[in-house]
């Protein structure tokens, strides 16, 4: 963790954004590169049978969300515990027996409960990270549920292995980007806790009792930007859930290989990929909730937009080719724009 985590994450997001932006340039010399990038991004119905080399079943999408739930939960729990124990925003965060032990001369060599003086700005930044991870947890839990119970992926549906690896990268890097500024401190906090447990043993560990009011009240004390961002997030979250339910209902049997139906309802009235639009909306909510000052989260958001716009454009073209009666008033992903 002595590495520049923030710098590595930013470099990774830039490396993911640049190929998409280059492939989107309207020049003849980018046409072949556009085809290459699009080939990596294709999956499911828009992937031609002749291009199914180096592919995996699309049902492997579930792997993304298993990784996302495990990783996001770990980051959320450790960051929340770190915030509660070391940068409390309320008085007396420790249990009385812990304080008494410290006053009596308890060892501080491995103490993971030791609080240090921090600025108010730093405290708020830590609790903002907890808030963002909590929103991310809500998202990935729902996506895992939908992958298991809502989507009926066709047996023939495939995805390129590069797209699969990109998904694994995204759901590892995205939660980490939401808390990257405090991740090194949280990492040291966890190591100190493990070391103290090894040295002292379970019976000699400090009290782990929580005051649940003190555990959650700092989230309520966050600024208005966090709550506006949360409102935007849940606006997109709700519409994505509705759109995914519509898509899932179109294919109730997994053996329906060649049947495709035009989806209708909710944001499908205005765009071909409203679930992608909703994803952009909810990540814009995370951006607003972050305060909009962290370049890493801006790069995460730009990657989401670039990736989904590219995929939505190809999906829209597929709909137009597939259905002669496809609604002509629908655009690809951005209402009234694109």
UniProtKB/TrEMBL annotation:
Instruction: Tell me where in or outside the cell this protein is found.
Output: Endomembrane system
Please name the pathway.
Protein modification; protein glycosylation
* Gene Ontology MF terms: 3-oxo-5-alpha-steroid 4-dehydrogenase activity
- Residue ranges of the TM segments: 12-40, 60-82, 125-141, 161-183, 212-238, 295-313
What's a GO biological-process term for it?
polyprenol catabolic process
- Which segments constitute the 3-oxo-5-alpha-steroid 4-dehydrogenase C-terminal domain? 211-338
Mode of membrane association? Multi-pass membrane protein
Q: Which keywords belong to this entry?
A: Membrane, Transmembrane, Transmembrane helix
Q: Does the keyword Signal apply?
A: no
Primary location recorded for the protein, binned into one broad class = membrane
Q: Does the keyword Membrane apply?
A: yes
Superkingdom of the source species: Eukaryota
Taken from the UniProt entry, a GO cellular component term is: endoplasmic reticulum
The protein's name: Putative polyprenol reductase 2
| Species, as recorded | Morus notabilis
